Amino acid sequence: MHTQRQLFHRPGFMDSGEVPHHFICPISLQIMKDPVTTVTGITYDRASIERWLLVDRKPICPVTQQPLPDDQALLTPNHTLRRLIQSWFDAADDRCPDIQDLVRGLFVPRLQLRSLHLLAALGCENNESIRRRLVQSGVPRILIKLIASFRVDVDRVEVDLALNLLFQSLRVPQNDLKPIADGRDCLSIVDLIAQVLAGENREMKSTATMVAKALMEAASARLLEQLKTEFFRSVLGVIRDRISPQVTKAALQVLLRACVRGNNRLKIVEAGGVREVVELELSFPDKRTTEIDLGVLSRLCSCAEGRAELVGHAAGIGVVAKRILQISAAADEEAVRVLAAVCWSSATKEVLEEMVSVGAVEKLCLVLQADCGSAVKEKARWLLRFAMHPLTAALKSSPTDPSNFARSVVDHLKKQDEYFEEATLHAADLRV
């Protein structure tokens, strides 16, 4: 089977007519590399149907809607179709098509779909120089204009191909993308991405999320300021869907990047961001996802609405406290920052009592003894001193009821204060 690169090294490829529809996988909408036929008689690219059955766990044929067994042994290699695709490649001419010719084809209705297929195949090459050529030829900018003119419900195939191509061509250094992300049409494609993310097609949602991540990383302050609550609601829907760990992380990184602008934090909170991130963390994701989760929460808790949502969630403070000293130094820093934000502005008697009951105060004490950074220890020490006075008052008001741990925390803090006071006096004596 020829590789994507070999597709462009066969005679008359540009003159061979439209890509035969039976060469296209019904799931990925790309030319098949390894066609296999299911028991329903429909042929798919092996990678796409295996993901459909084993990852997405959908035991039905996407085309016929008939039941499909999840046994990979029942996927029969379609050698006949494989040879036909190879013969079709062999009929092409021995030159690489000019990217500018393909770009011009995007503006000709009868050539648009074929040009998208060919550019997408070029973009799939694991070759940064080709992707740079795509950027230098203006492909991303043109695609953004083109996609902005599409309708998701009418131009589904074109949108999917264009998003795939845009994702491939965006995998270049950020400096090359900044002029594109600053363009006026970029906001239109963000709106279209929001529509795709709100849809049902998981393949398209995956690609759209990766495109959104790439755009956000290169986005100007002007673009970030214009993002809408509906966009964030769609991104949070991707997190809720749990399409794949990679897509979930990309969606979280979109939120993290958007949080650079303060007004976006409130929009994300209004879209249900705190709740979705806490629920994701309750599912025990991988360490990197947890780090991003806590990073998003620490930024959302910089606004009163975010803190209220975290305190209002039954597992909010508890899940943050539990991650301290479990994941990484970066996670510790973000988790302590979340608790500090809550204590500084929302330290009611009930919140402080909850911090004791869920083990947050105990974890902060452990931070002081652990091998953590000085900044994290200082913030933890401040938090404990801040909490000491309400805890002491609680002990005095109900001396028969409070937990032994609350008493030990107060005793520990008093000893800490005595130690620091003694050390300060000693240092002053030395200076004299």
Automatic annotation (TrEMBL):
GO annotation, biological process: protein ubiquitination
Q: Which UniProt keywords apply?
A: Transferase, Ubl conjugation pathway
Coiled coil spans: none
- Entry GO MF terms: ubiquitin protein ligase activity
* CDD domains, per the entry: RING-Ubox_PUB (cd16664)
Q: Which reaction does it catalyse?
A: S-ubiquitinyl-[E2 ubiquitin-conjugating enzyme]-L-cysteine + [acceptor protein]-L-lysine = [E2 ubiquitin-conjugating enzyme]-L-cysteine + N(6)-ubiquitinyl-[acceptor protein]-L-lysine
Q: What is this protein called?
A: U-box domain-containing protein
